[in-house]
Amino acid sequence: MRRVWRVNIPRRTGAFPCWGPTRVGGSACLAPENSILMPLATREASVPITQAFGVVAVSNIALFLDIDGTLLDIAETPDSVTVPPELIDSLRRAERKLEGALALISGRAIEDIDRLFQPLRLQAGGVHGAQIRSNPDVPAEALGFADRLPTDLAANVQEAVRHFPGILIENKGFSVAVHYRLNPQAARWLRETLQELVSAASLRDVEIQEARYAFEVKPRSFDKGKAIAAFLQREPFRGRLPIFVGDDTTDEAGFAEVTSRGGSAYSVGICRPGTTGFFDSPQTVREWLAAFAAGDSE
How far apart, in whole angstroms, are the C-alpha atoms of residue 139 and residue 36? Predict the structure, then answer.
């Protein structure tokens, strides 16, 4: 019997984002943490995920995938994630099926992405769009508009938080990520500390981007939407309909970019602003990708 992979697709009856305390197929469609709940006028339905690919031929689709929380289950630290071997095979098959029009769009640096998925090397956007690699056989490059975080600010961030228990710091050059999953109670203190540091630096082009149990201090000059836009100007992505799957507030610029081009955006776990629908979990994403790569989704 043919198995149909499903994603939760909100059918809106009003002009509101797909936010709201409703439950569909065991998945709550909730507002993101720390957001203001918008007025709700939605009717929920579960629709086959094949709808995302059914609107055009596979040869006309460009697929962009976030990694942590989308393809991979969230772990206590970035280095402790588990990459199922079958996922690497699914990605390889899907890239071949899409004639190369598949890219990973992540907050991780591209070198870290390669380490996770070795020996597979894919086209990728790293550090939330600061890096791009459109040819797996060449080194990653910085996108022209991507500024690096000032070194003195990066050093001040690291010094201010490094003694706090359960805090993990990642200096990515273009940004500094502060993870507090091991100490969630530190969130308020960390936010206030980072805001004070950015304010003291008097840098209007630097922002604090909130993610799942993390804050990222980064220039405003790059985001995942700009990385996707850069790919869509290059072959084999040019002229294709973009689809992006992500799970976090850091993915919302990507959601906006693909939908502005007539494409589709899917979140994971909860229904995020600007998305067409959402997958229940990374496991559901992996199962769907495997089915699509094997040809079952056509």
Answer: 41
First and final CA of the chain: distance in angstroms?
A: 15
Please say whether the beta carbons of 271 and 18 come within 8 A.
Answer: yes
CB of 292 within 8 A of CB of 94? Answer: yes
Distance CA 252, CA 105 (A): 12
Q: pLDDT digit string (tens) for 124-162? A: 999 999 999 998 888 888 887 778 888 999 999 999 988
Q: Dihedral of the CA atoms 285, 289, 295, 297 (nearest 10)?
A: 30
Contact 232, 254 (CB under 8 A): no
* Matching residue, tokens 């020996």: 119
Q: What are the extents of the domains in the chain?
A: 51-145+222-294, 151-219
What pLDDT score does 176 carry? 92
Yes or no: say if 276 and 286 are a contact pair by the CB < 8 Å rule.
Answer: no
51-145+222-294: what CATH class?
Answer: alpha beta
| Digit-coded pLDDT (tens) for 9-39 | 444 322 233 433 222 233 334 333 332 222 2
Q: Which CATH class is domain 151-219?
A: alpha beta
Q: Is 66 a catalytic residue?
A: yes
What letter would DSSP give residue 32? P
Catalytic hit among 66, 114, 248, 251? 66
Q: How many CB atoms neighbour CB 153 within 10 A?
A: 17
Q: Round to whole Å and give the CA distance between 259 and 48.
A: 19
